Amino acid sequence: MSLQVSKHGDVVVIEVDGQLIVGNRQELKQRVLDEAEAGARKVLVDFANAGYIDSSGLGVLVSLAKRMRELGGDLRLANLNDDLQTLFELTKLDSLFQIADTRERALESF
Amino acid sequence: MSELARVLDAFSEAYGCGAVLWMQAAGSDPLEVAATSGGDVTAPSRTELAEAEQEIRSRETALGRQLFARIPGRTRAWLGVGPVADDDAHARRWMRVLVPVLSQMLQSQWEARRATDELAERYEEINLLYSISEILGRTVTLEEAARTILMEVAETVGAEYGALLVNDAVSGLLRPVTALRVKGAPAPLPIPIDEPVSVTARVFRTRRALLVNAGVLESECEATFRQGAMLSVPIVWTTPDGGIPLGVVSLSGRRGGLGFTAGDEKLVAAVGSQIGTAIQNARLVRASIDQERLASEMRLAHDLQMRLLPPASVVTPEAMCAARVEAADGVGGDFYNLFRLGNGRTGILVGDVSSHGYRAALIMALVMSASAIHAQTTADPAETVQALLATLEEELRETEMFLSLCYAVVDREAGTLRWTNSGHPHAFVIGADGIAVRLEATDPPLGLGPEALHAASRPWSPADDLLVIFTDGVSDARDSRGTALGERRVLDVLRARRKEVPSRIVDGVFALVEGHMGRNRPHDDQAVVVLRSS
Fold it and tell me: Which domain does A33 fall in, by range?
């Protein structure tokens, strides 16, 4: 997995490339926490190039979303593929995140 | 000396006088080592012998005139003959014949003795190698191997003190595994590899043997096992790519106050790689034992975990049930629980902790015990799981874990199925028509979502409906190319077998999973529970 970080106004966009799994979840966690430490309060995680998220990856996303809310900010998701979208729906995790089908719509929603 | 005596006797017989052979060890008086049977030759003084170094000398004794001469060669030896006539020219000619003969014989004896000594030395070396080989062939601890090796090596070179130290790569220390300590000295302490004075550390750094005299490079680090000269040799494990330095064996206090010889150094250096192999062997044995112990503990933990799962028969006579859990790591995070709730009601709980291994197994054990209590003391599935969440909340927060969990209650008398589903994706009711209806999640997984949980209901046909709950380890099972089995194929099997007894349905699902995985090992736990009313 690799992470591409960019800024769009006051939104930090983190693009996940590859699988978000137990072996690399800390990398995403640390990156988001570093951005939060630097003052970011709006974070968008873009899964356009991510194929799979395991349960540990889901846990990290929820944990980061909670942390951002505690800081008065928000973490949103975009570009989940069909499998991931289904997974979020089946596990009711879609109730914990604001999920957009494109990056543009996600950026507009902040 | 019998050969020498026979030569002297032959001389005596030919010339008619006695003959004696003296030999002198360094700093000692000459000793008679061979003589004619009727010899009348007295031993000359040291001074007289010294005068005979270059030429034949004569002297007058009470027994008559005697001649004596130094025998050239490595051995300090003299030949004396007498009594001889005053005109001793004839006797001198005989002596000039005899001396080279004796010289050659003494040289041969010296070489034979040297060969014997070398053989004895080789024997010690062979004996040492044999002892180490014996250690190699036995199942011993590192400490036992090191102690035996050190004692054997010290005995062979005559050292009273010494230590065998092995490298601790993490801390950068040479740790003493065993030592022959100076009397009254405490146990030796680890020696930093970069210690500048220590002979042992230097030998490890340079990977070359070092022989130092008393007073040279004396370090406090080695005071407990050094007295006087010291011989240190690196211990190397020889590999196809070269050698890996494992430690050092240092020896001191050679018996008799003598220093170590180059031969000692050569001997110990020669067995350094054998010692390395013995130590590596002992380490591998220990690692193997540890691994076996861990595997044994995992098997035990797995057995204990499986014992926590109830037999499917606990829900009879209200229901027929079959269940199976396969843990990916010996112990896992998938589990189920079954309850007879009275009045024809049956409770089925299936969960999947967000990881597997020991931590997941502990959460699982907690859920198993707590759910057994809450299922009997609450009326509604949401209420049951709510109570369960209250029990688990702190543990989940501390471990940063969560779990998906589906708890369904089948009421065959009322013809209803009521469930609460915290993020568990694979829960279905398969009806008589073969249609699989998903029991939708009512909440996110426990530990991730809001604290107020919800429940849902649907009709239940005791005669036709089949309740199936499985975990994502089943639908996510991968083949050798990494392709997931997929939920649809699992449902196909369930639909096709829906009229069979639950145990055959479960077998069918696992046959599908195993067929798909082939030789692949499961990367996640797998659980399947199938229930129908009876």
Answer: 14-57+93-110
Q: A22 to chain B: which residues are within 8 Å by CB?
A: 355
Tokens describing residue B509:
């699902």
Q: Which of A63, A91, A96 sits opposite B404 (nearest CB)?
A: A91
Closest partner residue to B441 among A59, A62, A90, by Cβ?
A90
Q: Count of alpha carbons within 13 Å of B405, Cβ hemisphere only?
A: 32
Give the span between the Cα atoms of B460 and B417, in whole angstroms. 5
Whichever domain contains B175, its CATH number is 3.30.450.40
Does residue B426 belong to any structural domain of this protein?
A: yes
Number of domains in chain B: 3
- Which bin fits A53, alpha (ψ -120 to 50), beta or left (φ > 0)? beta
- Across the interface, which of A56, A87, A90 has its CB nearest the CB of B354? A56
| Interface predicted TM-score (ipTM) over 0.85 | no
Last residue of a domain, one of B112, B145, B177: B112
Domain span at B41: 2-112
Same domain, yes or no: B105 and B164: no
Secondary structure of B452-515 in the HEC alphabet?
CCCCEEEECCCCCCEEEEECHHHHCCECCCCCECCHHHHHHHHHHCCCCCHHHHHHHHHHHHHH
> Pick from A53, A63, A45: which is nearest to A5 by CA?
A45
B439 touches chain A (CB under 8 A): no
Give this prediction's pTM.
Answer: 0.59
Tens-digit pLDDT profile for chain B (534 aa)? 578 888 888 888 888 888 898 888 777 778 888 888 765 778 778 787 777 777 888 888 888 888 889 998 888 889 988 888 888 888 888 888 888 889 888 888 888 888 777 766 666 666 666 666 666 555 566 777 788 888 888 888 889 999 999 998 888 999 998 999 998 889 999 999 999 999 999 999 998 989 998 888 888 989 999 998 999 999 888 777 778 888 999 999 988 777 788 888 888 887 777 778 777 777 777 787 788 887 777 777 777 778 889 999 999 999 999 999 988 766 678 899 999 999 999 999 999 988 766 777 788 888 999 999 999 999 899 999 999 999 998 888 887 788 999 999 999 999 999 999 999 999 999 999 999 999 999 999 998 877 799 999 999 999 999 999 999 899 989 999 889 899 999 999 999 999 999 999 999 999 999 999 998 888 888 999 999 998
* B513 found inside a domain: yes
Count: domains in chain A: 1
Chain A residues closer than 8 Å to B401 by CB: 59
